[in-house]
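can u pls check wat happens w/ NAP
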Amino acid sequence: MKTIVIGARGGIGSAFVSALTARGTPPIALSRPELDLIDEASIAASAERCGDDIDLIIDATGFLHGDGMMPERSWKQLDSAHLARNFVINAIGPALLMKHFLPRLARDRRAVFATLSARVGSITDNNLGGWYGYRAAKAALNQIVRTASIELRRQSKQSICVALHPGTVSTDLSAPFSKSGLDVRDPAIAAERMLVVIDALTPAQSGLLIDHHGLVIPF
Ligand SMILES: NC(=O)c1ccc[n+]([C@@H]2O[C@H](COP(=O)([O-])OP(=O)(O)OC[C@H]3O[C@@H](n4cnc5c(N)ncnc54)[C@H](OP(=O)(O)O)[C@@H]3O)[C@@H](O)[C@H]2O)c1
């Protein structure tokens, strides 16, 4: 079984690498600088290195804060460089991963491409406001997943492309926001739960946003 984890050094990505290794299906682990979402040539070269006939690809890359940028609490904080960074890392980068990796999924058996999105990317679920760039970029990612899932069906009826919500997981990305009282999960537990969800996915669920319990989150 050929498995790949992209963003393999991140909090959740590294937990996926450990969990897949413990299952006896150690992944090809891809991260910067070999694969950088802002450099399409590096994505193409990484996909080439992985080859064809892939069973499972997990994209655990993402951006919420860093380099002085924090999620916006008001429209007053909207900033074009911050919005652009959100879209480049959370939507455009994963779209380019799909461009180069989806054609490499196995075609003669069930195969899965799962990208980590977020519940806050659900427009239906947005009752709190704030986090304009992250929310909008994850909503765009969810739309890209849906669109790719329709094209992927033409490649193989057994292939699945989904967006996963991992829950709140204790990583650098969530650290500034994980207040006490919030249900924050260890990355190892989150990765194990999501692998159970991935195991149970059917082609009929391709194109959906699914949480770590296996429940569909409305767009
Ligand atoms: N943690 C949570 O509570 C939570 C909740 C909902 C959704 N999510 C989603 O889950 C995913 C993983 O989050 P995490 O908590 O594991 O965050 P993390 O620890 O900050 O990991 C983020 C990963 O993204 C990679 N990355 C960032 N920019 C990149 C680029 N230009 N090219 C290639 N890789 C890049 C990082 O690579 P480097 O190691 O090279 O920096 C790192 O591996 C994200 O999509 C996030 O939105 C997380």
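The two ends are 32 Å apart (CA to CA).
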